[in-house]
Amino acid sequence: QVQLVESGGGLVQAGGSLRLSCAASGRTFSSYAMGWFRQAPGKEREFVAVISWSGDDTYYADSAKGRFTISRDNAWNTVYLQMNSLKPEDTAVYYCAAYSGPDYYTPESYSYWGQGTQVTVSS
Q: In 5-15, which positions are buried (b, 16+ CB within 10 angstroms) versus exposed (e)?
């Protein structure tokens, strides 16, 4: 079992930065690739980024490329999402999740989810 708890969300002005954290508990954390998704009101859950179990491979949604960076610290059982140059369209609840496959960009490929943290970007 893996338990995930997100933190670091909040209100930020456009152009600003936030760093989200996802703290994991359980003995199998390092076995999972970890992803970030987001969901705005009335919208489908959207893939943002994913990182391999080792941290050596990352993939990003087009909306995140060049602005967001996913990283992990297995010693602390934590995955991060550094978000720079934030835009109002980034406003959403952000979720971290543990990947099980096969498709990294779909929520159905993730076995465990956190409760989410709200990110609001003002213009």
A: ebebbeebeee
| Integer Cα distance of 99 and 107 in angstroms | 9
Q: What count of other Cβ atoms lies within 10 Å of the Cβ of residue 33?
A: 23
HSE-up of residue 81 (Cα within 13 Å, Cβ side): 33
Burial bucket for residue 71 (CB in 10 Å: 0-12, 13-18, 19+): middle
d(CA 9, CA 16): 13
When pLDDT is averaged across residues 26-38 and rounded to a whole number, the result is 85
Reply yes or no: is the peptide bond before residue 107 cis, omega within 30 of 0.
no
What totals of helices (H) and strands (E) does the chain contain, helices first?
A: 0, 11
Given a cut of 80, whether residue 44 has pLDDT beyond it is yes
Residue 4 has pLDDT above 80, yes or no: yes
